Amino acid sequence: MANEKTVKPETMSNEFIKKDRMRYVKNKLSGNLAVLAIILNALFFISIYKSNVGQYYYKPLIGASIVYNLLFMMIVFLVSEGSKNYQINYSYVAIPVAVLQFARILVYPRMAHNATTLTTGVEEQVMKDAQFTRLVIYLVGSGVCLLLSAVIGIIRCNMLKKHIEEIEN
User: Fold this and answer.
1) Sign of CA dihedral 42, 44, 48, 50
2) Residue 92: C-alpha distances to residues 29, 63, 79, 84, 153 (Å)
3) Per-domain residue ranges for the chain?
4) What is the pLDDT of residue 12?
5) What's 25's DSSP letter?
6) Are 133 and 105 in contact, with CB atoms under 8 Å apart?
7) Average pLDDT per run of 10 along the chain, which is 169 residues long?
């Protein structure tokens, strides 16, 4: 009797089946959270640039922001596909990208919220409180979804790796 643990056979069997099923089923939760991060980032991007006051956003920084948004969406899409297939390296890539989402709050949203511009002879605040709050929610939501995607991906990848090692031994 190789297995003399006090674990019920049906519980052990269900746990084994649950882990073994991971070999054939994609990690949809991790992948879908990454896609949600892309959607929230797109909402941020649309919201900030459609509300241009005067010529405030027409500066060289906008080019860098547009390039970053394109790179973000491309990288996170690759993270989504990689984490769905239990490739742990993609989950590790998601962590610094998520941190950058939090740091972005300090760039355009904060700068625009604190800035005023002259339009038709009247000084006007570039970004009002409601829009600033909405943009912060989009960026924080995107960062949180990406972090959750990474953590879930890492946990599930390690769980599957350990299960495969147990089967092979």
Assistant:
1) positive
2) 16, 27, 9, 14, 9
3) 35-168
4) 64
5) S
6) no
7) 46 72 86 97 89 72 88 96 93 96 90 81 84 94 97 92 84
In Å, what is the CA distance from 28 to each residue of 11, 71, 124? Answer: 25, 23, 45
**Token pair of 142, please?**
């995107």
Tell me if 104 sits within 8 A of 139, measured CB to CB. Answer: yes
pLDDT value for 5: 42
Q: What is the pLDDT of residue 23?
A: 81
CB 91 within 8 A of CB 153: yes
Residue that the structure tokens 């006090």 belong to: 6
Q: At what angle do helices 129-168 and 28-50 cross, to 10 degrees?
A: 160
- Residue 54's pLDDT is 67
Whole-number Å distance between alpha carbons of 15 and 123: 65
Q: In the prediction, which pLDDT does 6 show? A: 44
What distance lies between CA 123 and its chain's CA centroid? 37
pLDDT at res. 112: 83
Burial of 164 (C-beta count, 10 Å sphere; 0-12/13-18/19+): middle
Please give the angle made by the CA atoms of 97, 72 and 149, to the nearest 5 degrees. 50
pLDDT for the residue numbered 150: 97
Q: What is the C-alpha separation between 65 and 103, in angstroms, rounded?
A: 13
